[in-house]
Write the structure tokens for this entry.
Amino acid sequence: MNAQPAPLTATVRHNRVDLALHRLAEDSSGASVHPLLRLHGLGESTLPEAAEPVVWPGAVYGLDFTGHGASTLPVGGGYTSEILVGDVDAALQHLDSPVTILGRGLGAYIGMLAAAARPDVVMGVVLADGPGLAGGGVHPGSPALVRPAERTGTPVPYALLELARDVRPADYARNFAGYAMEGSDLDLPLWVATVVRPAWLEAIVGEPGVGEGSIERGLATYASPGV
């Protein structure tokens, strides 16, 4: 298990939002293992949810999504999963290194999309249970105009409302999982460690290139130096 220094936070720019990228643990391997990037669930933040350490020999980072944690707030909502994938891409550019992703809840879904968008630098994604895993289901709901209660700070009510209603069709998820597999050099670029299996997740379990098992086994699969 890696040493746990006091977190240091870098600021990463994505459009007009300043994202908080926390360094949670140092590389203790001495073997240049690539970093682990942790993505939190809906309504959460990297800290303190990531206080529970994981077994990873390299450096560990955690990203606060737009409208969450210590990241700044866009004006007027407009939260989508694709916007959050842009957050991850900004973090990847900042780290300038291949990473493995451990995504919790909403972060699991975003991690899968990021693996499809950046298979050149995402060295495996472990999908774990957490808030926001299901999203808004596989079909759009009834249109409604909702104005969240005014409040300050994070998580932003618009983020909670809009991302909780984010539609995740099964074929959409299956296509993105396919892009991750086609673009990756790994045998198993995705690893499902969840107990809860919403429809989008059921659609990818069993597909070629998708491993299944505990979080620990998934991380061990991706932790070998040079992977």
